[in-house]
Amino acid sequence: MKLLTIIVTYNSADHIAACLDSISCSRATNEIVVFDNASADASAAIAEAHDAVSDVIRSDTNLGFSRAVNLAAKGRQFDFLLLANPDMLLDGDAIDALIDAARDHPEAGIFGGEARDTMGRTWPGAVLNDHNLAHAAKFALLFGVIPFTGRLSPDMPPGGIPKGTRAVPVVVGCLMLVRGSLWEEIGGLDEFFFLYGEDVDFCMKARALDHSCLFTDRSTYLHIRGGSSGGHAEMMKRVLRGRRLLYQRYAHGRLGTGLLIAGVAIRALLETLAGRDGTWRACWLDRTVWLTD
After folding, report:
1. What is the mean pLDDT of residues 204-208?
2. Three-state SS for 89?
């Protein structure tokens, strides 16, 4: 059984060494490839100096996450592909637990684990809901923002934050194990997505092909949120762009986009009325960034 691990770095020098240390603990035969998206720091050099790394690919320009992963995987043979963010630290046998889940559940094609934040709390973003019309409507109606609507948050999967081992709609790409056969069947990540949204798209395509996505809390990891993508407002603009592309594909196009715009506008208005220059106001003022291709 051969495992290929791909890590895409972009100014990730603060995290990449510790990430690689945690990944190299797996029992599986693990080929680790780091694709550096034109980092201005020492990310690539740190990866090249790490004993566990098989190959480092340096790009002269930032090609985005999807294209970087596809290029790193091209021409390589693997039974499983592990996508891992440089800002996450795996606990002990986290990779082996994902592989064990894959062996126990042949009906599933994608596998993910339980994440926690730097405060030790369970991070609910390790799994997501489908980004369809219902998701867009919940976002516009402020579900998850209005008090007592947390379980109706657009990203919350059915049944709430999962425990044990069970099927979920979406496993996020910060730690995602994919069967090699499924990767070939879908053809990799959709390069229409530069950063954010590609994991949701991949999972929704997999489920349309009758390959379920499986969560297991036997695989655990620490995720330093935003450690790969800069400040919160800039990160949210990228998230919104990915969400718009998903809504165009899975939420009736213009209708989904309109609901997205409404949701951001209402949140920005609430921040303005509260006298705060927050993330949503910044996203609204710079909306051309996430509303254009």
Report:
1. 98
2. strand
Residue 214 CA to residue 266 CA, distance in Å, equals 34
In terms of Cα–Cα distance, which of 37, 40, 42, 39 is closest to 68? Answer: 37
Distance of CA 34 to the CA centre of its chain: 17
Return the domain boundaries, the chain: 2-122+161-223, 232-291
Quote the CA–CA distance of 47 and 86 in Å, as a whole number.
Answer: 10
How confident is residue 226, by pLDDT bands cut at 50, 70 and 90? low
Q: Give the integer Cα–Cα distance in Å for 274 and 54.
A: 51
**Residue 251 contacts residue 138 (beta carbons within 8 Å):** no
Predicted pLDDT at 76: 97
**pLDDT of the residue at 245:** 98
Among 63, 80, 11, which Cα is nearest to 229's?
11
Q: What share of the chain is helix, strand, coil (3-state, %, to 5)?
A: 40, 25, 35
- In whole angstroms, give the CA distance from residue 155 to residue 159: 12
> Average pLDDT, stretch 141-168?
94
Looking at residue 277, what is its pLDDT? 85
pTM attached to this predicted model? 0.95
Whether the predicted pLDDT of 134 surpasses 60? yes
Q: Domain 2-122+161-223 classified CATH 3.90.550.10?
A: yes
